[in-house]
Backbone:
């Protein structure tokens, strides 16, 4: 969706003031990152900074379940890592009424769900891996994150978006969007613009069921489900991959989902938002670094899981392409865009990468088995 009008900073500050920051919020800056939630950096009179986020209630039908998961994950990581590792994990800031989130409206419209994290200072984020060493560190951090959650006490986390990586049902949604687009003039226009992308996604439909076919042999784990490089905070000075962020889709799933998303976002030199597809070509050095880093961080993988990782890369790349394309057909209602046609461009980048992954598939399989 296109960005809503900017929020009134005073209204955001009033919401920030409902959290226990230990000071009075005095400044707020919107962070234009991520496609789904809205994020603000809040500074207080006590000199500390916080990340205040509005959960997108259109994307997350049950924000209460999202927050229940985030509370459990952050507490577990605190317990596992201890107080000395405060920069290696997210910490929620409770609201003044003791809860971990607040429902509040910034203006017109219904109340939204808000939550606050302590800001981890002196970090940077990246849009793509610039070196194999950086790809290694990011993949190792995601692998360690999964390792830290292996002993998360039961019950399993809530499925915050049901069928999130069910690629076959993503294709069903695509088919429905194609039909629905034919019913209006604007829809037909969008469909026409996307002729080439529709054809190319369609041509790879047979891939969509690959992971679900293997799923009976694969353990369900607690996985992150959104392992793109921008969800890692790197230390500004040392470059170390400090902390995994964006816990909203951390829930039961397959290791191949996470590794697949890493390959999708880090095995090449194209930004997800590139207008050109030329750089969306797998680089085997980056891929090998991802494989080494992930296998090092996620030492618990079974051999069946390990064999599923390349399928994860192919399927997740195709899935992301079909999700961007579906959103374009529906009029950009899900992923935030900055310009018309952006979701179609995003789809094209994913498809170019998929073609190159398929071309290199034999090399990728070899590198996963002997990284
Ligand atoms: C969305 O909000 P953000 O940017 O972290 C999306 C992911 C996609 C990603 C593509 C809940 O994540 O699934 O892979 O965009 N999150 C949701 O960049 O749909
Ligand atoms: Mg996300």
Residues:
């Amino acid at each position: 969706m296109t960005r809503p009008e900017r929020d009134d900073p005073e209204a955001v500050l009033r919401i920030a003031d409902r959290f226990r920051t230990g000071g009075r919020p005095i400044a707020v800056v919107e962070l234009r990152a991520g496609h789904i939630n809205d994020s603000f950096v809040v500074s207080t009179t006590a000199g500390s900074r916080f990340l205040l986020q509005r959960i997108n209630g259109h994307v997350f039908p049950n924000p209460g379940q999202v927050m229940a998961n985030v509370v459990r994950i952050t507490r577990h990581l605190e317990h596992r890592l201890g107080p000395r590792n405060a920069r290696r994990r997210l910490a929620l800031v409770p609201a003044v009424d003791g809860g971990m989130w607040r429902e509040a409206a910034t203006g017109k419209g219904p109340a939204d769900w808000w939550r606050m994290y302590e800001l981890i200072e002196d970090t940077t984020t990246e849009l793509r891996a610039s070196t194999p060493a950086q790809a290694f560190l990011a993949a190792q951090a995601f692998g360690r994150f999964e390792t830290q959650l292996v002993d998360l006490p039961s019950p399993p986390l809530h499925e915050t978006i049901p069928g999130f990586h069910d690629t076959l049902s993503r294709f069903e949604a695509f088919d429905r969007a194609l039909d629905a687009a034919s019913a209006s003039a604007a829809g037909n226009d969008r469909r026409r613009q996307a002729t080439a992308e529709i054809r190319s996604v369609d041509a790879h439909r047979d891939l969509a069921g690959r992971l679900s076919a293997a799923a009976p042999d694969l353990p369900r784990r607690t996985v992150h489900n959104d392992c793109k490089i921008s969800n890692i905070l790197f230390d500004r000075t040392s470059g170390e991959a400090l902390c995994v962020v964006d816990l909203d889709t951390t829930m039961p799933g397959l290791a191949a989902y996470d590794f697949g998303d890493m390959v999708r976002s880090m095995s090449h030199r194209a930004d997800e938002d590139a207008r050109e597809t030329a750089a969306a070509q797998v680089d085997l050095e980056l891929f090998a670094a991802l494989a080494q880093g992930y296998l090092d961080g996620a030492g618990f993988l079974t051999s069946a899981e390990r064999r599923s990782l390349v399928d994860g890369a192919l399927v997740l790349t195709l899935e992301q392409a079909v999700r961007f394309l579906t959103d374009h057909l529906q009029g950009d209602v899900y992923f935030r865009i900055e310009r018309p046609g952006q979701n179609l461009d995003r789809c094209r980048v994913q498809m170019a990468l998929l073609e190159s992954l398929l071309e290199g598939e034999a090399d990728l399989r070899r590198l996963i088995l002997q990284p």
Summary: The longest strand covers residues 25-31. The pocket of magnesium ion (ligand 2) is lined by residues 36, 226, 246, 248-249 (CB under 6 Å).
